Amino acid sequence: MKYKAIYDVLNERRQTTPGFCYHDRSGWRAYPQTYMTMQYPLWIIAEDAATGRRLWITQEGTRFSISIRRMDEQRHNYGPTYRITCENRTKLAQVLRYQFESKTLAV
Question: What residues have CB less than 8 Å from 65, skipping those under 6 apart?
């Protein structure tokens, strides 16, 4: 699988952290493929209640990024959005793992 390292990090977090979940809206899973699904092949929204953060893990065209916002107990976003860009999906998985290991917002 093309994004295996990213899904491995997400599934590990889901198994070890109560309240963690993610919603996968990735275009690579779509059938049939359309212009829009090819433009957004990776689109995952992760909610990490343990650290109070919501993360958007995306690939738009050739750009990989993680956008992070704080999340309150009712799962509402607040505060600024932090964006981390990565040069490839391997680096994206490494940065994602680092975000989950950090107790604070690590940008």
Answer: 56, 57, 58, 59, 83, 84, 85, 86, 92
pTM of the full structure? 0.87
Q: Which residues contact 11 (CB under 8 A, 6 or more apart)?
A: none
Cβ(53)–Cβ(72) under 8 Å? no
The tokens of 25 are what?
A: 């809206």
Nearest CA to 83 among 107, 49, 102, 54?
A: 107
CA 104 – CA 92 distance, rounded (Å): 18
Model pLDDT for residues 1-16, shown as the tens digit of each residue: 789 999 999 999 999 9
Which amino acid is located at 20 in the chain?
F
